[in-house]
Design goal:
This protein has 425 residues and is an alpha/beta fold. It folds into 2 domains: 265 residues, Aconitase, domain 3; 146 residues, Aconitase, domain 3, CATH 3.30.499. Helix content is 30%, strand content 18%. The chain has 14 helices and 18 strands. It has a 5-stranded parallel beta sheet with strand order 4-3-2-5-6, covered by helices on one side. A 5-stranded parallel beta sheet has the order 16-15-14-17-18. It has a 4-stranded parallel beta sheet with strand order 10-9-8-11. Helix 6 links the parallel strand 8 and strand 9. Helix 6 runs parallel beside helix 8 and helix 11 packs across helix 13. The longest helix has 16 residues. It is globular, with a radius of gyration of 21 Å. 55% of the residues are buried.
Length: 425
């Protein structure tokens, strides 16, 4: 079996003990290790939870709500929704609730806190829940009604997905190239429906050499290729990341050498350049160096895709001693409070402010067109976020380009899409 099939087989709810094997297309009922929702989706889940007459959550240590999309609360409606999360968490004594000042962007916060772990089956009322596959977990986004049911029962049904393997050869990547470029290149190759309802399993020398933050970025965007999940077989990098932060036990699963895959794709990672997704699909990719004629109005460095400390460090290396182009506004959004404090201690935030960028408290903010960076008609943004659909960051006649932090920072200085080499880096 593949790692995905093994995890699901190990979680199947079946009288008389665990089932030893599952196959793609099979319908199963699985035990859930962790359930999450945010300030947009949790209010619906809470309403459905109460409708079905549930008296309590299945485990108060395995359900959490994170107000991050419209938080800090941007208006009265957002405030009311965030209040629902807070009240429910208090009333049902949830062990982990993250108010503004303690919270972060959910898909950066929960791995950091050791709440989502290798071998888990994790569901979240947010499509980028697939991020946690980087830890060797089966993690997928579901609807709020499914979340309500799982909150009450600790179980949920799934159709076992086919698995699709992506092998990246070569350990040494081109300068500044990272996980964002690998996944954008992959989505550009297979399209936004190229992995529809499949588990995207990433492996190869390049993946083994990737640090955890880059693995999280890759799995985060599996949904942008239509994937049910993204996953990386856990290894020493995984163990180093989860050891000391895990709040409960975990298990490493591996794919069998003779596991069957619906499709296998192979890439020479050494040839993948700094890559940008052009409007208005993540699959509309081009090498960043070919887009030097594209002027921009806004740059965003942050989100659950690229708001981690390593991402900020990369952007800061490029920004240091330079100024943001006067025709550009640059927003830097650390993904969690811990990342914010570490960036402050390292002097990164001061570098950004000195360059005349704006530094925000953790929030999804502009990524989903929520607040703090909405685009006007005709404006163009380059962002380290994960989606660039029409109207994603504001006016339907605005445009969003996607990149990694190195291209984003260089472009903020240049006033157009560019690469660090143009700044002598």
């Amino acid at each position: 079996m593949t790692i995905t099939e093994k995890i699901l087989a190990g979680h199947i709810v079946k009288s008389g003990g665990k089932k030893k094997k599952v196959s793609p297309g099979e319908l199963i009922n699985a035990k859930i290790d962790f359930v999450l929702a945010n300030d947009i989706t949790a209010p619906i889940a809470i309403s459905e939870f109460k409708k079905i007459g549930a008296r309590d959550v299945f485990d108060r240590k395995r359900v959490t709500f994170v107000p991050d999309h419209f938080a800090p609360q941007k208006d009265i409606k957002a405030a009311e929704q965030c209040r629902m999360l807070k009240d429910f968490s208090r009333d049902y004594r949830l062990a982990y609730y993250y108010e503004v000042g303690r919270m972060g962007v959910e898909h950066a916060l929960l791995p950091e806190e050791g709440l989502v772990l290798p071998g888990d089956v994790i569901i979240g009322a947010d499509s980028h829940t697939c991020t946690y596959g980087a830890l060797g977990a089966f993690a997928t986004g579901v609807g709020s009604t499914d979340v309500a049911s799982a909150m009450a029962t600790g179980e949920l049904w799934f159709k076992v997905p086919e698995s699709m393997k992506f092998i990246y050869h070569g350990r040494k990547l081109q300068k500044w190239v990272g996980g964002k470029d690998l996944i954008l290149h992959t989505i550009g190759d297979i399209g936004v429906d190229g992995a529809l309802y499949r588990a995207m399993e990433f492996e190869g020398e390049a993946i083994s050499a990737l640090p955890m933050h880059a693995r999280l970025t890759m799995c985060n965007m599996a949904i942008e290729a239509g994937g049910k999940s993204g996953i990386i077989v856990p290894d020493g990098v995984t163990e180093k990341y989860v050891k000391g932060r895990a709040k409960r036990g975990y298990k490493f699963y591996m794919s069998d050498p003779k596991a069957v895959y619906a499709e296998i794709r192979e890439y020479d990672a050494r040839k993948i350049p700094l890559t940008v997704a052009c409007p208005s699909l993540p699959s509309n990719t081009k090498p960043a160096a070919e887009l030097s004629s594209i002027s921009i109005d806004q740059v965003v460095v942050g989100s659950c895709t690229n708001g981690r400390l390593e991402d900020l460090r990369e952007a800061a290396k490029i920004i240091k001693g330079r100024k943001v182009n006067p025709n550009v506004r640059m927003l830097v959004i650390p993904a969690t409070q811990r990342i914010y404090r570490e960036a402050m201690k390292e002097g990164l935030l001061d570098l950004f402010v000195a360059a005349e960028a704006v530094v925000s408290t953790p929030t999804c903010g502009p990524c989903l067109g929520g607040h703090m960076g909405i685009l006007a008609r005709g404006e163009r943004a380059l962002a380290t976020t994960n989606r660039n659909f029409v109207g994603r960051m504001g006016h339907p006649e605005s445009e969003v380009y996607l990149s990694g932090p190195a291209v984003a920072a260089a472009s903020a200085v240049l006033g157009r899409i560019g690469v660090p080499e143009e700044l002598g880096l």
